[in-house]
Amino acid sequence: MKIAAKNNKAFHDYEVIERVEAGVMLTGAEVKSIRAGRISLADSYAVCVQGEMFVNHLHISSYERGGLYTPEPTRRRKLLLHKKQVAFFGTEVERKQLALIPLSVYFKDQWVKIEIGLCRGRKKYDKRQKIAEQEAKKKIAQLVKARN
Predict the structure, then answer these.
(1) Are 100 and 88 in contact (CB under 8 A)?
(2) Backbone torsions φ then ψ of 116, nearest 5 degrees
(3) Residue range 44-85, pLDDT digits in tens
(4) Which of 3, 39, 44, 80 is the most exposed place for a label (fewest CB within 10 A)?
(5) How is residue 41 annotated by DSSP?
(6) What's the domain count of the chain?
(7) 42 lies in which domain range?
């Protein structure tokens, strides 16, 4: 598995409740651009519309040798999921006021996959608490290492 992009900001801003792997409908030039690492997950999100799942604002830069047809970099892209998964995530988002956030984009064999997380937004004090816990763990690890 080769990771093309990871959304580190999502792990800071959201609490990930559940994850799912989905395929993405892309053009050939977009796949080549992802292989070159020209993808950004910042500010992207997924929505369920009429029984189908789409990802919005996923920025894939245009491939420089792409020819005449170059799709819009932030166009809406369809996610490939089972109908039951789409129905489950659609109802969870509506019922519990959650968000569907892309966590990472990677290659599984030759296929481009995207990991979508069902997320709950964190408050400012939750973010501070998480940072404090990480710093405490880091300090403890340093002390243990220095002692040995």
Answers:
(1) no
(2) -105, 135
(3) 999 999 989 999 999 998 888 767 777 888 889 999 999 999
(4) 3
(5) -
(6) 1
(7) 2-122
Identify whether 69 is part of a domain. Answer: yes
Q: Are 17 and 27 in contact (CB under 8 A)?
A: no
How far CA 60 is from CA of 40, 111, 143, in Å, comes to 7, 16, 43
Nearest-angstrom CA–CA distance, 92 and 47: 12
Per the domain annotation, does 34 fall within a domain?
A: yes
Residue 45 near residue 100, CB atoms below 8 Å: yes
Picking from 122, 110, 106, 120, the residue whose alpha carbon sits closest to that of residue 21 is 106
> What would the pLDDT profile of 2-57 be if each residue is shown by its tens digit?
888 898 888 888 889 999 999 999 988 888 888 988 999 988 999 999 989 999 99
- For residue range 93-126, what is the model confidence (pLDDT) as tens digits? 888 889 999 999 999 988 999 999 999 888 877 7
Is 32 within the bounds of a domain?
Answer: yes
Q: Domain holding 100: CATH number?
A: 2.40.280.10
On whether residue 92 sits in a domain, the answer given is yes
pTM: predicted TM-score of the whole model, two decimal places: 0.78
Q: Are the CB atoms for 144 and 78 separated by under 8 Å?
A: no
Query: Which residues make beta-bridge pairs with 2?
Result: 107
